[in-house]
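Re: the multi-chain job from yesterday

Posting the exact lines I submitted so nobody has to dig through the queue logs.
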Amino acid sequence: MIATLGAGAALVLGVRWLPRPSGAARRASAASHESAFESHPLLRIDASGATTILVNKTEMGQGVWTSLPLILAEELDADWALVTIARAPSGPRYGKAATGGSDSVDSSWLPLRRAGATARVMLLTAAARRWGVDPTSCATRRGAVIHTPSGRRATYGELVGDASRLAVPDGRTVPLKPATEYHLLGTAIPRRDLEVKVHGAATFGIDVRPPGVLFACVERCPYFGGSLRSVDDAAARRLQGVRGTVQLGAVTAPLTRLPARVAVFANSTWAALQGRRALTIAWDPGAARGFSTDALSAACRASVDAEAQVAFRAGHPPLVIEPGARTVEAVYEVPFLAHATMEPMNATADVRDGRATIWAPTQAPDGIIDAVAARLGIPTDAVDVHVTFAGGGFGRRFYADFGVEAAELSAAAGAPVKVTWTREDDIQHDLYRPHRVARLRAVLDDRGLPTSWHTRLIGASWAEYWDPDTTRPWQHDWEGAQPPYAVRNVLIDFVALPSPVPIGAWRAVNNGENGFFMEVFVDELAHRARIDPIAYRLALLGDRPRARRVLEQVRDVSGWSRSAAGRGRGVGLGVAYYDYGGEQGGTQVAMVAEVTADDANVRVERIVCVIDCGLPVSPDTVRAQVEGSVAWAVGATLFGDLTVTGGRAVEGNFDRYRVLRMSEMPAVDVHIMPSTESPSGVGEPAVPPTAPAIVNAVFAATGRRIRRLPLSRTLGPASARPRS
Amino acid sequence: MPSITLHINDHPHAVDVAPDTPLLWVLRDTVGLTGTKYGCGMGLCGACTVHLDGEARRACQILVSSIGSARITTIEGLAADRKHPVIRAWLAEQVPQCGYCQPGQIMQAAALLAGTPHPTRQQIDEAMNGNICRCGTYQRIRRAIARAAAETA
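And the result, C-alpha cells for all chains:
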C-alpha cells in the first residue's frame, strides 16, 4: 500500500442521535430512562441513589475530574460517596469542552451550581408532594430529603421517578447556597482520578487500542516550512511487521499546521519505528534553510527602534521616551520553549463510511472536530471525539494537529490507526512559546515612581504565524504586558519579525514572557528609586486591595524583612507580583524566591507563594497547581531553551532539552488567601511570577541583573547544581 | 519468529516478537500492560520503569531477548497488592496530577525503599533524579517516600 491522501474522502452521511428538547418547559422525564433522574445533561441519579456526574473538561492533571463534580454535588447536597464521575461525550449539549486559560472552574462555577441547585429543588419538591407537606418545611442533606418537623426521610434514589415528572425550573431562579453552608467546597476531598493513576490503570490517549488497529509512526519534515523532495520506502516495506507507507502533504486547517510527512503503518509501535528508520527521504529545506534562533535574536535586537504597531495606549504616553536622568531602560530576551508533556502527542482514529471517530488526549475536542471535518471534507456532526486522560496539556493539546493526522492516516489506510509521536517528534514539532525581545522604558518622578511606561515587544508574532493577512498584533502578542500598577501614561507596541517557527499557547500563554519583562523591570525601577521592591509595588497598587493583601502576606510569611542582612552575600530573596485576570475576579499572586547564587551557579532553594483565587474549591488542588506551576517555570527559567539552526530544531529529547528534575526542585510553600468570592483560575497564574522572582533574587544575591533567559545561557550549562 | 517466554507479574507470557524489541513495547503492544509508559525511548525520563528481579530498570532500554528468566514486575503487578505502602503513601499525599509518569515514579520509589528502607532526603533526590515529572509533583513524591518509609518502620 502506498498512496497519497487526496483532499476529499468518500462522503456518506451518518445518522446522528437527535438533540433532546431544551428550555424551561422540558420535562426531565424526556430522558429515556424512567428509572433515572436527569435534570441536566451532566447529571444522572439512579433509583439506587447512584449519582453520576459527567465532566465536560479535559483532566490533564489540574483536577477538574474532582473539582467540577464537587461544585454540582455541593448544591445538590449529594452524598459524595454515591457519586461516580465519568467523561462527558463530545457535543454542544454538554457545554464548552475546550479546556484552557485556567478557566474551567471559573466558567463552570455558576452553571454547575445552578444544575445542582435545580436538581435539589426538584427532588425536594417531589418529596414534599409525596408527603403532602409544605416544601419550606423540608430540607436536603447528603443525598436525601428530610421533612424537618416529622423527621420523615426519602433518599434521592427513592424520589427519581416523582422528580422526573416535574418541570425543570429555570436555573436562574433557584436559590443557591451561601458559602457558609458549604460542606464539600473548600474542604480536603481526595481526588477521584488518583486511584486508577497509581495502579497504572488510567487510560491515556497512548493506551487506546481499538480492534484491528494499525500502529503508525510519522517522519515529519524537520525544516520549518520545508517540503518533501523524494522518498524511498523499499527497505522499510521489506521489514517484518511493516504494512505500508503513505506520503502526506502539509496541512493548514483550524488550529492545525502540519508539515509534509511520510508515515509507516505496522503491526506494532516498534515495527513502525523500525520501518520509519528504514525510510530514505530527501527534504527540501525551503526558505527556512538560513533561519536560526541566533539570527532571530540579532534581528530582534537590531529592530528595537523599527516602526512598531501600537497595541495598547493609556493616558498620553510619549511615543518616544528619550533617554535621560529620569529614564530607566532595559532590554530583555526569552527563548522559544517546548511543552514536552510527559505523554507525547498521539491520537487514534477510525475513519470509515463518511464518519470519523477520534480518541485523543486533547484539550480541545471541538477543535479536532472542526479540523478533521475540514480536512476530510465531512460534516462536523460526522466526527466524534472521545477524550481520554491527558498526560499533561499546558496548551500543547489545544491544537488539533495530532488528531487531524490520525484521521488522515486512518482514511489512507482504510483501517483504525493509532499514531504515536516519539519524544523527538513531540519536541521538534511543537508549537512553541514565542521567542521575544522586549525593551522597557520608564520615566520616574521625584519619588522614583513611573509616570510614563513603554513596553516594546519584538519578535515572532502570533498574528504572523496564525493569521498572516492580519495587519494588527493579536492580543496574545501583548497579553499580560499592561502593568497593573498605577502609571499615568502607558504604551505597548510591537515589532513583528518573520519567523517560520510554529508558535502557540504555553502554560499562562503570553503572560509568562510579558510578566517576566514587567516584573524584572519593576524591580529595576525600585532599585533605581532606592525603595524596597515590595514597598515599591505597594506604592503603585494603592487602589487594588486584593493585590496589596497578597504582597503584604508574602512579605510577612517569607521572612522578607529579616533577610535584608544576608543580601549580596550569595543568598538573595526576590519578589514578583502577578495579576492574572484583574483585581475584580482574577487571581492575584505574590511570590518570593530564595536563591543561592554566585557568578556561575544558581540554585533555587525556596519559593513562597501567596495566592488569592477567590473561594478555593479544592484547597489541596490549588496547592498542587501552584507547586506544579512553580516547578514548570523554575525549569524553564534555569534551562528551557529550544534553539533552531539551519531551519530545524536542535534539541529533541530530555538530554538536550532540559526540564526540571527532583534534585533541582525548590521547597514550595503555598498560602491561600481565605475568600468566599467566586473562584478564579489556578492552573497558570503562578507561572508568570516565578521567573522574575528568581531573577530578582539572583540580583539580590549577587548584584548581577540577568535580562536574558534561560539562566543556563547566561551563567553556563552547569548553572543548576544538584544539591550537594 | 521464535517464541520468548517472559515472567511478568508472576505469570509466564510467551511472546512472538523480534528479539531486538525493547521490553517497553512488548509490555504495551504485545502483552497489553499499558501502565508502563513511553516517555523518551532513551532511558532519560523514567516513565517506563519496571523491576527486573526487584531492581528498577528502564524498559525502553532492555531488549526482550536479553531478559532470560529474570522476573519482571510492572506497575500492574505492584498494584495487585492494594496495600502496598508506596501506593498508599502516594494516595495519602495526593501525589499525581496528570499521572502519566507516576507508574514509573512508584516503581522507582518501591525499588529505592526495598534496598534503602529509610532513605535520607539526598538519597531520595538521587534515586528519583532520573524520573521526570512535568506536572512538578516532586515535593509530594519526596513526602510520599518519607511517609512510606515511616510506615514500614
